[in-house]
Design a protein that fits this description.
There is one protein chain. With about 280 residues, the chain is mainly α. It has one domain. The N and C termini lie far apart (about 40 Å).
Length: about 280
């Protein structure tokens, strides 16, 4: 599927960036990027929506990282509409399947791709390099297949369980899944070389921590949907998931990669949805 910017690693590889002068390039882009360009960069990276204006670079995506939750409202909203309309005709499980299919189409299955690649690497025994090679192998392994099936099952059953509140199910999954990616970029540093490197260079700083706090404020509208206490609980759970993945990826491959960010979206989104199921 054509993309404005290619995926970080695994079966899709992000546009190769020049390591020389990255900080200078990022400072220049920080001065030039306006909100519209940031939204465009985030859209091109997190969705398969065709956009005019040519390809987006990974440095642009790094600048747009704090607004990832905004894209979560879009992708979650689209799948929420499909779930809501499908429930008028089909049972909760078939409706949830259609909503998940819509989400995969909108996102290009990018996060799921990263998640299954990360699972393949995690199941591999050996050095950092060997695990990274397993993640970048274009062939799906047993570990990735099992992890993908598990993720789909959790998403399917939790969305079906929340069929009386379809937009709660889809928005919690997507908004907090995207927020976990922001937290992860602040908490960890990337492996080298990795096209996730510009993202962590931009966010793994004091300024990045401030941006992550501002990014958290983008979840305020969720208070209207699930309430204040559940929203605060979801934010805490997001932090826990991001911290867990940071520690695990450091132990497995020596740092963060693009696949780890995809895994953060899937794992945190699933965990947050399960929490809402429990609270409901």
């Amino acid at each position: 599927m054509p993309r404005q910017v290619a995926h970080v690693s695994g079966r899709r590889t992000l546009r190769t960036h020049r390591r020389r002068g990255i900080k200078g390039v990022q400072r220049d882009r920080a001065c030039k990027m306006n909100p519209a360009k940031m939204v465009r960069a985030a859209l091109s990276f997190l969705t398969s929506v065709p956009l005019p204006g040519g390809p987006t670079t990974i440095e642009d995506v790094a600048q747009a990282t704090p607004i990832f939750p905004i894209i979560g409202y879009l992708t979650g909203g689209v799948s929420g509409v499909i779930l809501y309309l499908s429930l008028r005709v089909f049972n909760p499980f078939l409706s949830s399947t259609l909503a998940i299919a819509a989400l995969l189409l909108v996102t290009g299955a990018n996060e799921l791709d990263g998640f299954v690649d990360f699972a393949d690497g995690a199941m591999c025994v050996g050095s950092y390099q060997r695990r990274l090679e397993a993640m970048r192998d274009p062939h799906l392994g047993v570990g990735g297949m099992a992890a993908g099936l598990l993720a789909f099952s959790v998403q399917l059953f939790s969305w079906a369980q929340l069929s009386r509140a379809p937009f709660t199910a889809t928005l919690v999954y997507e908004v907090f899944g995207k927020l976990a990616m922001v937290y992860l970029s602040v908490l960890g540093s990337s492996v080298t070389p990795s096209s996730a490197e510009p993202v962590t260079k931009h966010m793994h700083t004091r300024r990045g921590a401030v941006l992550a706090v501002l990014s958290t404020l983008l979840c305020v509208p969720m208070v209207l949907l699930v309430g204040l206490t559940p929203t605060l609980s979801l934010i805490v759970l997001d932090l826990v998931c991001a911290t867990f993945l940071m520690v695990v990826s450091k132990r497995l491959i020596g740092g963060l990669s693009g696949d780890v960010f995809g895994a953060a979206n899937i794992i945190a989104g699933s965990a947050c949805t399960l929490l809402i199921v429990r609270l409901h």
